[in-house]
Write a structure and sequence with these properties.
With 293 residues, the protein is an alpha/beta fold. The protein has a single domain, classed as Aldolase class I (TIM Barrel, Alpha-Beta Barrel). 41% of the residues lie in helices and 17% in strands. The strands form 2 sheets. It has an 8-stranded mixed sheet. A two-stranded antiparallel sheet has the order 2-3. Helix 7 links the parallel strand 7 and strand 8. The chain starts with 16 loop residues before the first strand and ends in a 6-residue tail after the last helix.
């Protein structure tokens, strides 16, 4: 298999077969991110992609879900994505779904009819690192799009029948901004239909712009308790039926919920943690974190 770049897949794709379609990120400007620093975006040449598919066919001929690696393979053109999706099915006859990371920017240049064709070719399950639905936080994080962009592009996915997942990041709005971020993000996400939302929490790593901003005193990260309160507000205000996974390692206290069913129970669980765990103990957990997720 040709894994040349950093290979990063979300925890919920653990059962998917992984193939490298791209490596690196086309953007690399998110201020909290150090994942692909120094790595150029690269599309795997078709010969390489096909060699990998042949290898997968040998070991897992009945693979049903394939995850394409890279920070945003969906940045490829419609034609390229469609060609690759059809090629996957040449090798893996039972493949139902090809999932991948996508940015809101990557959807902009695709028409709904093209998205429908991609869906028909098996592209489904886009993980979108929105991080927030609050304009001030999106700008602070350097995401390069607005809340309105999120709505506009995700409605296109919905029209095409492409399932997508959001990422929300607590703490990203900085100290004192969590409540606003949670309220505005929950309201925006509730206009849409993310099949599930995974929640991470900001950790500042050397080499990132937000880390530099903190060193210069122009960004103050939210405390750990504020983040848990932010998560409570987010859950309280999400008015859609969706799964929520706040259980990656960046969450000091991992929780999962199916909303609205588990709303009160999980808010209560978080309150217990707030009432019984010190800020210092939570901060110590974050100091020991080694990766973004
Ligand atoms: S968060 Fe995603 S889109 Fe932003 S720089 Fe990192 S890999 Fe690229």
């Amino acid at each position: 298999m040709h894994f040349t770049g950093r290979t990063w897949r979300p925890p919920y794709e653990a059962h998917s077969v992984i193939v490298q379609a791209t490596s690196g990120c086309t953007y690399r400007k998110c201020r909290f991110c150090n994942l692909y620093q120094g790595e150029r975006f690269r599309m795997s040449p078709m010969e390489e992609f096909e060699e990998d598919l042949a290898e997968i066919k040998h070991y897992q001929p009945y693979a049903r879900r394939i995850f394409w690696t890279g920070a945003n393979p969906f940045a490829m053109s419609y034609e390229n994505l469609r060609l690759r999706a059809r090629t996957v099915r040449d090798y893996l006859i039972q493949c139902q779904t090809m999932a991948m990371f996508a940015s809101i920017r990557d959807i902009r240049d695709k028409e709904v009819w093209q998205l429908k064709k991609l869906r028909a070719a098996g592209v489904n399950g886009l993980s979108i690192g929105t991080e927030s639905g609050d304009d001030a936080t999106l700008a602070l994080a350097g995401k390069g799009y607005t809340a309105q962009d999120i709505v506009k592009q995700c409605r296109k996915l919905e029209e095409a029948g492409i399932e997508y997942y959001f990422v929300y990041m607590t703490g990203l709005a900085g100290r004192g901004g969590g409540y606003r971020n949670a309220k505005n993000s929950a309201r925006l996400f509730s206009w849409l239909q993310p099949y599930f939302i995974s929640v991470d929490s900001l950790t500042l790593f050397p080499g990132t712009e937000l880390y530099r901003m903190e060193q210069q005193g122009v960004f103050t990260p939210a405390g750990e308790k504020e983040r848990l309160q932010e998560l409570q507000v987010f859950i309280q205000n999400l008015q859609i039926r969706t799964h929520l996974f706040a259980n990656s390692s960046s969450n000091v206290y991992p929780v999962t919920a199916y909303l609205p069913r588990d709303r009160e129970a999980v808010i209560g669980e978080l309150q217990d943690v707030l009432d019984t765990t010190s800020e210092e103990k939570m901060a110590e957990y974050r100091r020991n974190l080694k990766t973004l997720g």
